[in-house]
Amino acid sequence: MPTEADAAQNPIRNIGKVQKFAVGTDFEAYAEQLEFFFAANGVTDSKQKKAVLLTNLPTETYQLAKDLVAPILLREDSLTYDTIVERLQKQLKPQKSALVARYEFDNRARNEGETVSQYVAVLKHLATDCKFNDAMRLERLRDRLVSGIRDKRMMSELLKLKREELTFDIAVAKCIAIEQSYKDVEALQGGKEPNSVDLLFKSKQNKKPKPKKEAKPPEKKSFPSPKEPGDQSCYRCLGNHDHKSCPYKRGKCHHCNKTGHIARACKSKKRETQATRPPVNYVDGDDGDSDDYLGSLEVNNMSDKDQVIWVSPEVQGRVVKMELDTGSAVSVLPYKQYKEHFGHVKLAKSLVTLKTYTGQKITPKGEMKCIVKFKGQEEELTLQVVETPGPALFGRDWLSKIQLDWGEIKALQLSQTPEGIMQHKVDQLLRRYKSVFSEGVGTFKGHKADLKVEEGCRPSFHKPRQVPYALRPKVEAELKRLEEDGILSKVEYSEWATLIVPVVKRNGSVQVCGDFKVSVNPVLLAEQYPLPRIEDIFANLAGGKHFSKLDLRQAYHQMEVTEESKKYLTINTHKGLFQYNRLVFGITSSPAIWQRAIDQVLQGVPGNQCILDDMLISGKTDEEHLENLESVLKRLQDAGLKANKEKCVFFKDRVQFCGHEIDKEGLHKTQEKIEAVVNAPRPENVSQLRSPFTSY
After folding, report:
1. Which of 272, 449, 510, 600 has the most Cβ atoms closer than 10 angstroms to its Cβ?
2. Three-state DSSP class for 356?
3. Considering Cα of 579, then 584, then 589, then 590, what sign does the dihedral take?
4. Is residue 607 a contact partner of residue 628, using CB atoms and an 8 Å limit?
C-alpha cells in the first residue's frame, strides 16, 4: 500500500474537474464520474480516492456518511473508498418499486420543446427500474414512443407500418428523420416551421373559464391555420407564407403526381387517409375546449379481444363491465349504456375534448357524476358519456383514485396469451385425469409378469450381504415403505434368495436393488421383445412443434407377478427374507415384459412413443398434440397406471429423451454426453482402452 511519502511524490494531476456532490442528484452517476476522474489522473490509491470523495461532499451528506459507517471513523485506514461509496449508494438511491416505475414509464409523454432524442433518452432511463426482460423492454419502449411522441405526422408514419415490422430502432429513426425535416424546411423558408408537439401546450397556458355567451376574441396562434380568414398559410406546402411565393409552386406531388403542391399538402392523400382510418376504442382528453390537442393513445381494433383486460366496478349501484385502458386519460361510458342503465342521472356539460390516436375528434354527450365501488373502495368519480360502439373504458383518471390488484391483472394477462390459454387447457386435462398423477403405486390391469426358469435347474440361495451401519436406517426405512405399499412381503422360508445392493440416490434416500445376476438370471428363460430405437422415435414424432414427456412412477413396480414367479424374486436382508409381489428392476426379462405390455396399452394412439417408463407425446398442431396427450392419459387411467407429475413436462419447445435433445428441428446430442466423450481421460493401458467397449 502506498505511503504518504509516495502520495506526495505522485500528486493528483489536474485533468478535468470534480464538482461538489449536490444533494438530491443521482449519487450513483456522481460516483461513476469520480471513477473517470481518477482514471484520467492516474489515481489508484484508496486513501487519495477517499479524500477526494469526502472533501467534495456537502455537510449533510458528509454527516450521513459518518452515520452509515459508525462506529468506524472516516479517517481510519480500514474504511475504504469502495465501502463508503457502497453505503452511500444504498442510502441515497433505494430500489424503486417496479410497479411505480412502470406507472411513471406508462404516463411519460413528450414535453414541450423536448427533442425526440431527449425523449428517447428519458424513456430508456425510466425503463431501467421497470424490470422488463430484454424482449419486453424494446417492445414497451416502442409502444411508449408511439403513444407519447405527440406529433401527428410522426404518429401517422409509425402507424403505417405493421406491428411486427415496427421495431423500437425503426420508430426512433423515423421520428428523428421527421424532426430533422422540420428543421430543413424552416431553413429553406427562412421562417419557423411549426413542430406539432407545440400544439399540446398552447391551449393549457394561463387558461381561464369564460362566461357562456361572452364573445371569444380570436386567440393568437403560433402559426396561421388554413381555415382562418385572413391567414397567409400556403395550400401548396402548408408553410407560413403566401402561396404565390411558395418555392413548391412548380413542385410535383409524389402522391398524386400533380404539379403545384407537395405530398404533405395533397388533398387527395388526406381524403384517402380519412377513409382508411381503423375503428378505435381508445380516446384521450384535454381539460379544455382546444381542438388542437392530440391524444397519444394505443389503437385497439374491435377484433383484438384476446388482449383485453376487464374490470367490473359497481357504478351507481349497478355492476358495469369496463375495459382497463391505461392509455386513456379519462373514463368513458357509451351513450347506449347510459340510456339503458343510467337514463335517470342528469348529464352535466363536459369541458373535455376527446381525440383518438388517429386524430379523429369525439365530442362527449356530457359527463356523469357517479359513486363507484370496487373491492371495498368507494369514490365519487366522473364518466364521460360518448356516442361510440366500443366498450366502457376504465381510464387513468379512475386509476388514480381506485387501487387495482396489478398482480392479479398480470396473471390474467398471461393467462390470455396463446401460451397461457394452452397452459389452462393442459391444467384442465390434468385435473380431469388426476387419478393418473395421484400418490401411491399403480396396478397394471390385465397384465401379470410370468417368469420361467430352465427345467431341472437348482435353486440358488445366498446369505445376506453386510450393509454399512451408516446406511442401515435408510435401508430399513425403504424396506418398510416397500412393504407398506404392497411391493414386498416378508416370508419365513424360500429356496431362492439373492443379495441386495443399496444405491444412494441424489436426494440422500436409498433404493434397494436385488443382485439377481447371481441367483435367477443365469437360469431364467429370458423373453425377447425389441425396444424402440431413438431414430424410430423421432421418425414417429416428425412434424411436432411442441413436446410433452410423461414419467411413470416406479414403472416395473406397477406390474404384478404371478404367484409361481414370486419365489424367484426373494431378497435376503439383515432384516430377513422378503419376496417381491411386483416386477422388479434387475431381472433379465423385465424390460421386454414391460415394453410389450405398455405398447399394447398405447397401440393406435398417434404422436406418441414410449421407452420403458418414459413417454413422449407430440402433434403437428397444438390441438392435435392436446388430443394425443388426452388419449395417452385416458389409456393410462384405464390401465391403472400412474405417473410422477413432478418429472412430467408439457408443451415444451425442447425436451431431453433417452440421452438426446428433441425439438422441431430434429434430434441432437446433449451437451452433457458430448463433454463426457471429449473430456474422457486418455487410456494408458489395454484395460483402460477396452473399458468403454466392454461396459455395454
Report:
1. 449
2. coil
3. positive
4. yes
